[in-house]
Known about the structure:
The complex is a heterodimer.
Chain A: E1 12-15, H1 16-22, H2 29-35, H3 45-53, E2 59-64, H4 67-80, E3 91-94, H5 99-104, H6 107-121, E4 125-130, H7 132-137, H8 141-148, E5 155-160, H9 169-176, E6 194-198, E7 205-208, E8 211-214, H10 216-227, E9 231-236, H11 241-245, E10 252-255, H12 258-272, H13 285-298, H14 302-326, E11 331-335, H15 343-357, E12 360-364, H16 368-373, H17 375-383, E13 389-392, H18 403-410, E14 417-421, E15 439-442, H19 458-475, H20 484-488
Chain B: E1 9-14, H1 17-26, E2 39-41, H2 46-51, H3 54-65, E3 71-76, H4 78-83, H5 87-98, E4 102-105, H6 114-135, E5 150-153, H7 163-176, E6 181-185, H8 191-196, E7 203-206, H9 213-221, E8 225-227, H10 237-251, H11 254-272, H12 276-285, E9 289-295, H13 296-310, E10 313-320, H14 324-338, E11 344-347, H15 351-360, E12 365-369, H16 373-378, E13 383-387, H17 407-423, H18 426-431, H19 434-439
Parallel strand pairs in B: 1-2, 1-3, 3-4, 5-6, 5-7, 7-8, 9-10, 9-12, 10-11, 12-13
Helix pairs in contact in B: 3-5, 6-9, 10-11, 12-17, 13-14
Amino acid sequence: xxxxxxxxxxxxxxxxxxxxxxxxxxxxxxxxxxxxxxxxxxxxxxxxxxxxxxxxxxxxxxxxxxxxxxxxxxxxxxxxxxxxxxxxxxxxxxxxxxxxxxxxxxxxxxxxxxxxxxxxxxxxxxxxxxxxxxxxxxxxxxxxxxxxxxxxxxxxxxxxxxxxxxxxxxxxxxxxxxxxxxxxxxxxxxxxxxxxxxxxxxxxxxxxxxxxxxxxxxxxxxxxxxxxxxxxxxxxxxxxxxxxxxxxxxxxxxxxxxxxxxxxxxxxxxxxxxxxxxxxxxxxxxxxxxxxxxxxxxxxxxxxxxxxxxxxxxxxxxxxxxxxxxxxxxxxxxxxxxxxxxxxxxxxxxxxxxxxxxxxxxxxxxxxxxxxxxxxxxxxxxxxxxxxxxxxxxxxxxxxxxxxxxxxxxxxxxxxxxxxxxxxxxxxxxxxxxxxxxxxxxxxxxxxxxxxxxxxxxxxxxxxxxxxxxxxxxxxxxxxxxxxxxxxxxxxxxxxxxxxxxxxxxxxxxxx
Amino acid sequence: xxxxxxxxxxxxxxxxxxxxxxxxxxxxxxxxxxxxxxxxxxxxxxxxxxxxxxxxxxxxxxxxxxxxxxxxxxxxxxxxxxxxxxxxxxxxxxxxxxxxxxxxxxxxxxxxxxxxxxxxxxxxxxxxxxxxxxxxxxxxxxxxxxxxxxxxxxxxxxxxxxxxxxxxxxxxxxxxxxxxxxxxxxxxxxxxxxxxxxxxxxxxxxxxxxxxxxxxxxxxxxxxxxxxxxxxxxxxxxxxxxxxxxxxxxxxxxxxxxxxxxxxxxxxxxxxxxxxxxxxxxxxxxxxxxxxxxxxxxxxxxxxxxxxxxxxxxxxxxxxxxxxxxxxxxxxxxxxxxxxxxxxxxxxxxxxxxxxxxxxxxxxxxxxxxxxxxxxxxxxxxxxxxxxxxxxxxxxxxxxxxxxxxxxxxxxxxxxxxxxxxxxxxxxxxxxxxxxxxxxx
Lengths: 512, 441
């Protein structure tokens, strides 16, 4: 596909709002199947649900289905993602569903597995995930868990996780997260000046006395809460069953990642009337200020909030101003990515940041189905005035565009852009589009989540983002000594005139 | 570190047993593909401080000559050097009575460092087998026009933990560019080569930036070119391209060097292209901040490799060096980075200074030597040892280098291990262990 013919190939730059209006609702699967031919989506719903559930403690998971699902999770999902982020080893057992059970029903197998797990592991919580086989067989999991609950000590929770049910992470999240509210109890009283933080993603948090430990994003929000003289009640999803059940005692909910936070906040409002504050994923000076102000306003801590904002901004003012100077006149290309739960939210939060820094944002490789699968995220960002340009395309069979193609289409030179992308897998920029020539900032959540690393939110996260941007711009000024990516996908050596005719990446449609 | 590389030799350490124990361990550095050079101690003790250790030295030498080594080294420690035992006299008697060449050197720690010792040893070799013979008219020197190829100088001193595999790779690269390798000084060097063939080479190719003034002076007398003290080591792809093309242009065949680079590139590309595993580590380490601490030349090459090849920011670079000129050379090699990367260079820092700098600059990982691992990981910063001596807890048995284009694969593998440590939140695993919860701590 030629970049200069992107328009002829069906690509169209629209605003996010226009895309939102153009897309058929997610439930119109027939219309969407015509609009987006071939396969779409990347992750099994079971992987997604287990990923978020693994942030809990003192829990055993039962995959009601064949053993293959469990094995696949063990060798792929837990290895690649779950084990990184401080969660404990996920104890995952299978009910070992067989062909007979598909025909005759697998309820007995599920019941026996629950009883055995409760006896052997003695967890406080057992989460049952149903998979494709048990879902299609129509096993009555609700009745089974209700019947067996009196026989076991663990609290039982069922989260439907059939792979065929939804391929888009947004819908998987929206369907599964509110179920955790079933673990919560109506509070006898609401604790004054307490907040829950909802939507923690790939993180952990624990507080023992004065000691706080966890991922840097969560700790940043905790820091703000405590600086206003408030108390963090619960950080979800995290903790064990007893931790979760008392969450409604908090006076308000504030949000971490909107994708995981909004569904839970809305359900808690519906079930218990717990109010929530609307800001989420605050990357940038202005939105972080609003985040803190909202908190201060709600809890009548306006003065403390203003003082905190001034103090925090002072500490990052230099890097903020330096970054604004360095990006002046540049355009931000933001790659959405198919890979992560938070592709939409992270891309839009980044777009909001770069707009504040003075750059126009163009988002590409974010599948439109991601957009319509996450209406809560989209509504939030649109209502916050975040309305970047968006490359609308069918992305059939996981076809992607390269940053080079986007650059050419927009008529941009390499020094005019800052590219926010992921160098992962087959979507990694390469060849001529190398860090030695083009400012590239890695935004993939999974690979930013190293302990001690400022992941990106709040004032400190904003400063970290700015440092990454300025470092990337500096590194790209050298125009020589390309990285290994530049070499492998281009000419390998500078003596070959390596940048002259670097190989362009074009990936064939992934048709199996 | 020079004696150990000479096969068929024996080191008689005239000094206390404690020093000998350390030395014998250091000898492990030379065993891969070479063999063991024994270190025999005279067991100098308190009594010998009073009455002198010469008799012990003589007895030890009498035992050693029974094994008929081709060469005996007599080296001293602080105690014996200060006492002033006549080691040269002892050496002369061995040569006279048994016909075995014997080199005696005062290698007391008070006289200088590792590099001073290397200078002494290499100079002694030239004195004994070349310069003295030239004076006496029995020259083994070849005419300048007949000289070809290079001697490789200081492989064990260049600072890489895999230096012996690196040496093999460097030799392979040189041979591919039509640059014959005469001798490695020293590793697996035969006595006959050492004593007879040193001056066949046109030049000495240095793998270290330190000065060895006595040796250099002698080489000038012999009309030998010195090359490489200013050159960055061939660590990583960008550095290898720079080093290799320069040495090929000077001494060999540039076209063949390019052909070899292309061939190596095909091997690396064949493994890494479209490789999700490779992209995982390349993606994960990109943009991260690193500290580097090791000997100056290796540190400079390492910092450049991290920045150019992997897009890592080497924000702290600690240079260990003996001489001011070695520090200057490393600084020059790092100079091209300064415009494109925030870089703080520490010259011969204390571990305290280095640790404070790591914290101040918020590094995500540190790469250096085994010695500072506990310091760094005690600060909860993941650490990787690529530099330093091999002998100490270095389980690198696979014969694959760090240097050269192909060495990139080895480096990337090690970076993958480091990356895992950067991302794995072990404290969380421990705190959230279900089994701990159920069974108690």
